[in-house]
Specification:
Blueprint: E1 6-8, E2 17-21, E3 28-31, E4 46-52
Antiparallel strand pairs: 1-4, 2-3, 2-4
Length: about 55
């Protein structure tokens, strides 16, 4: 099970993985370490990691 890593929009992603928006459980995106966490539908959100990606 993945630790409940949560990062907000505008922050730098700390590890590559599949992230789910806390505003919509059906929205999951791939974000790589070092990328800026995006907004969701033009609004800030918190992103929760649901799966790590291998390096």
């Amino acid at each position: 099970m993945v630790n409940q890593e949560v990062i907000n929009s505008g922050e730098i992603c700390t590890m590559s993985g599949i992230w789910r928006s806390k505003n919509d459980a059906h929205t999951a995106i791939r974000i790589l370490e070092g990328e800026v966490m995006p907004q969701f539908r033009d609004m800030d959100t918190s992103w929760e990691m649901i799966q790590h990606l291998p390096k």
